[in-house]
Amino acid sequence: MENVTVNFIENKDKKTKPDADKIAFGKHYSDHMFVMDFQADKGWYDPRIVPYEPITLDPAAMIFHYGQTVFEGLKAYRTPSDRILLFRPEKNFRRLNLSSDRLSIPAIDEDLALSYLKQLLEVEKEWVPKAEGNSLYIRPFIIATEPNLSLAPSKTYQFMIILSPVGSYYKEGIQPVRIHVEDEYTRAVRGGTGTAKTAGNYAAAYKAQERATKEGYSQVLWLDGVEKKYIEEVGSMNVFFKVNGEIITPELNGSILEGITRMSIIEVLKDWGVPVTERKLSLEELYEAHEQGQLEEAFGTGTAAVISPVGELYWGEKKIKINNGEIGDLSKRLYDTLTGIQTGKIEDTYHWTIELNS
Ligand SMILES: *Cc1c(COP(=O)(O)O)cnc(C)c1O
Predict the structure, then answer these.
(1) What is the model's pLDDT at position 358?
(2) What CATH topology corresponds to 177-342?
(3) Taking CB atoms and a 6 Å cutoff, what residues make up the pocket around ligand 1?
(4) Domain ranges, ordered by start, for the chain
């Protein structure tokens, strides 16, 4: 049923691109977008690249009422020799389908989706920023479009990809962040939707984020929703700790989102011969390790920041500083390695990057 031919309607009214040093995250969008529809009797159909513009939906469209939607986030990077690279994009479409499955949304063909993305990027090549540290953020997403207030999966959907040039996450160099441990609100629980990139998870996190911000912290550390004991994620990033030479990251337990940065970091660490363990890690154990002088580094991982070092944790009454509030050596080495591969500055021995035009 699915169609490889992408119709193309050119946008004749091209926008001016934002200045490299003035790009705010999520504010600028390219000239075109990718759209494809789903109907039960047709499957996914009519893939097309059209001018970026507002879309019209019925007010009863199911996305507005019951949140049946999933999204992805990845980036296209420009190398010093002007090649354009994607970092493990097939993993994003794999995960999109896993998220969709959780939300009862029909699967897309992952290979076709990647080919559609490449065709869109071919049209929008000029939107991949040239400035050091900048990149083109890619947001694929699916929404339920059937106008129907019944509680049942939608019979129609739209899959779209939009593109947004973004600036360097670290304009003033890598700054470790201060983290507020969240002991009241829960991000996700086992059996819930934490393993899916779906809208509700993020709206439900704002309350905790608001409190952290008010108290001068930049992100929250999420604990498990059952016992409120074990560490899960930091903000919307996966989290790693270096304790006495060993790297520990919470095991995938049915409520943690499996990051592609996370899986890449684990592979790199194994490759380097650094001991890395995926297991349950309680906050208590972590604070004890700190007391014994064994908590050496902490960092979040995700597409936006790649590595975001944690300089301070605040839990109840207890504030602890990690590595003197500075980025650790291993965190720095991981950051340089991952960003080096993504931007084509170091050799991609893992074969993770895909070049546009290849
Ligand atoms: C997207 C996301 C991550 C990081 O995933 P990456 O693939 O590394 O970008 C981690 N946690 C949550 C909750 C996320 O939404």
Answers:
(1) 63
(2) D-amino Acid Aminotransferase; Chain A, domain 2 (3.20.10)
(3) 73, 197, 233, 236-238, 257, 259-262, 301-303
(4) 7-166, 177-342
